[in-house]
Amino acid sequence: MIKIVQLFVIFFSLTKMYAQPLTSATAVRPGNVFDSLYITTGTIDAPDYNANIPINSLKIMERKTNLLLNNDITGKALNGPYALVAGGSKGIGYAIAQALARRGYNLILIARHADSLLVAKQRLEATYQVHVEILVYDLSKEESAGAIAKWCSEQNIQLKMLCNVAGLGGTQDYLSLPLDSLRYMVRLNIESVMGLTLTLLPQLENNSPAYILNVASMAGFAPIPEKNLYSATKSAVIFFTYSLRYQLRKKNISVSCLNPGPVFTKPSIKKDTKEKLGWLGMKMAVSPERVGEIAVRETLNKKLIIVPGSLAKIAAALIRILPRRLVVAFYGKAGEK
To answer: From edge to edge, which strands make up the β-sheet containing 159-164?
Structure first.
């Protein structure tokens, strides 16, 4: 009986966490229609419809950095395996990139902002004996997936792993955001995952055994009124992963889904978690570095559903076995407080 009570305490605390507004992981530009949105796992922060620029022997941001980026695959790791991390310049995406680099994977990092990609590239190449390619794309745009796949094919990339990390959520959600903002969330959270996966499948199959890691959230395990569309998109990623894993079972491509709970990607998130959840939230939280390491390790071990942290695993299991009407009622009441 005591264990059951403890489980419900964990569950109710988790409902408070996902029903309340969360702190931004990456700041958005002031005055933009996306000011209410925050990045959950990637680095895309606000739409810039001139952002699809592959960094390929081009001088970019010269007045800011005076750097010449030459990405003609002539570096020190020409023949090694590559992993592509969409949303890999900061947060969980960067932690996943680090974990892959430790294992000798060369990297292709994709995000919307060249400055953060440059920093990530320099850090990774200085620390690990790997080659890092960086591509600037708005992954919500329909043409991005095809352009990225074409570039990988033209460069003869030995692609062994695809990591779909970029995702968007926010303090406002369905009924409180304009339609274009909601559509942007759907395009980034779902369509980019579907598009990149489909267009890169031929290269993954040619380099099998290969791996796909989709990043969702514990919010995807249950309907959350205050996070209606966000939780729905993350649920879609989870279900997509289940089905895709079955579809690719004979192609020697393993598909996994990462579903993290609290992750302290910046000090303000740690402060917010401590204030809202107290000691339980602090105990449940997992550092980005640990999340990245667990995600890569378990993906390479071909695990389907990955939930970092013991307490988070218990909470996730409880959420999935309780009746949906009860779960949504819990989340709804917590969000009204």
So the answer is: 53-54, 132-136, 106-111, 82-86, 159-164, 210-215, 253-258, 305-306
Strand, coil or helix: what is 337?
A: coil
Single-letter residue type at 299: T
3-state secondary structure (DSSP) of residue 308: coil
Q: What is this structure's pTM?
A: 0.79
- The yes-or-no answer on residue 230 being catalytic is yes
Q: Helix axis angle, 310-321 relative to 2-19, nearest 10°?
A: 90
pLDDT for 319: 83
Residue 73 CB coordination number (10 Å): 15
C-alpha–C-alpha distance, residues 261 and 75, integer Å: 37
**Separation of CA 294 from chain center:** 14
Rounded (10°) angle between helices 192-206 and 144-154 = 20
* Rounded Cα–Cα distance for residues 176 and 185 (Å): 13
User: Closest by alpha carbon to 237, among 292, 266, 197, 268?
Assistant: 197
* Residue 79 token pair: 């023949």
Count of CA atoms in the C-beta half-sphere (13 A) of 245? 17
Please name every residue paired with 88 in a beta bridge, in sequence order, or none if there are none.
Answer: none
Q: How far apart are CA 55 and CA 135, in angstroms?
A: 5
Contact criterion met (CB below 8 Å) for 110 and 192: no
Amino acid type, 312? A
For the segment 19-51, what is each residue's pLDDT rounded down to a tens digit? Answer: 444 333 332 222 233 333 333 344 333 333 334
The string of DSSP letters for 67-113 reads -EE--SS-STTTTS-EEEEET-SSHHHHHHHHHHHHTT-EEEEEES-
Q: Within 10 Å of residue 72's Cβ, how many Cβ atoms?
A: 9
Of 134, 105, 128, the residue nearest 213 (C-alpha): 105
From the candidates 230, 242, 246, 331, give the one annotated as an active-site residue. 230
